[in-house]
């Protein structure tokens, strides 16, 4: 997933389908299961000392928060094809070199939602609204961009590569 504006989230069809499936599971079988666990724990008696009850209620709260998050995301989703190689856009794995550093840094430009779709990939995620994300958005491989770090210093990076996530 990636944001193209404050109100729109770009998703591949695969990402949209997976998030929709997760939402349907959370609103259906998962909700029923957590309600069953709460009722079962409630029947054990004194709720003030019932660890199972409190754990189930905590889990229910997390689950409801995730449902809300997914509903909001899917409501503002725009489904489309992954962006083209070479141009830094949301949904891209970007590799940059910082001026004065020989090592390149690789990250996903976009949202943790997209990165969480593949548990086998451990990658840093930079928002399009971050200083680095905003500076490199729309740039092409070989371009340089500068941005101001929170410390006030100006940092320059060169775009080494930009490929669609999951490609």
How would you classify the helix and strand content by structural class? alpha/beta
Estimate the mean pLDDT confidence: 83
General form: elongated
How many individual β-strands? 8
Biggest β-sheet, characterized?
5 strands, mixed
The N- and C-terminal alpha carbons lie at a distance of: 14 Å
* Helix coverage percent: 25-40%
Q: Percent of residues in beta strands?
A: 15-25%
In sequence order, what are the helices and strands, one letter per element? EEHHHEEEHEHEE
Low-confidence stretches: 1-6
Number of helices: 5
Characterization of this structure:
The protein is an alpha/beta fold and 167 residues long. It is 38% helix and 23% strand. It is built from five helices and eight strands. The strands form two sheets. The chain has a five-stranded mixed β-sheet. The protein has a three-stranded mixed β-sheet with strand order 1-2-3. Strand 5, helix 4 and strand 6 (125-126) form a beta-alpha-beta unit. Helix 1 packs antiparallel against helix 3 and helix 2 packs antiparallel against helix 3. The longest helix is centred in the middle third of the chain and has 25 residues, at 51-75.
Task: Annotate the secondary structure layout.
Blueprint: E1 2-3, E2 9-11, H1 13-27, H2 29-42, H3 51-75, E3 77-79, E4 92-98, E5 104-109, H4 112-115, E6 125-126, H5 131-136, E7 144-148, E8 154-164
Parallel strand pairs: 2-3, 5-6
Antiparallel strand pairs: 1-2, 4-5, 4-8, 7-8
Helix pairs in contact: 1-2, 1-3, 2-3
């Amino acid at each position: 997933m990636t944001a193209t504006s404050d109100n729109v989230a770009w998703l591949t069809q695969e990402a949209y389908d997976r998030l929709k499936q997760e939402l349907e599971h959370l609103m259906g079988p998962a909700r029923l299961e957590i309600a069953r666990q709460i009722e079962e724990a409630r029947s054990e008696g004194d709720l003030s000392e019932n660890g199972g009850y409190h754990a189930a209620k905590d889990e229910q709260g997390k689950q409801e928060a995730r449902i809300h998050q997914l509903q909001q995301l899917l409501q503002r989703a725009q489904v489309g094809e992954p962006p083209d190689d070479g141009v830094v856009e949301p949904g891209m794995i970007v590799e940059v070199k910082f001026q004065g550093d020989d090592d390149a840094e690789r990250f996903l430009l976009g949202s943790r939602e997209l990165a969480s779709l593949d548990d086998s990939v451990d990658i840093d995620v930079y928002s399009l609204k971050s200083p680095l994300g905003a500076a490199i958005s729309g740039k092409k491989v070989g371009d340089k961009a500068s941005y101001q770090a929170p410390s006030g210093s100006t940092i320059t990076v060169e775009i080494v590569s930009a490929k669609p996530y999951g490609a």
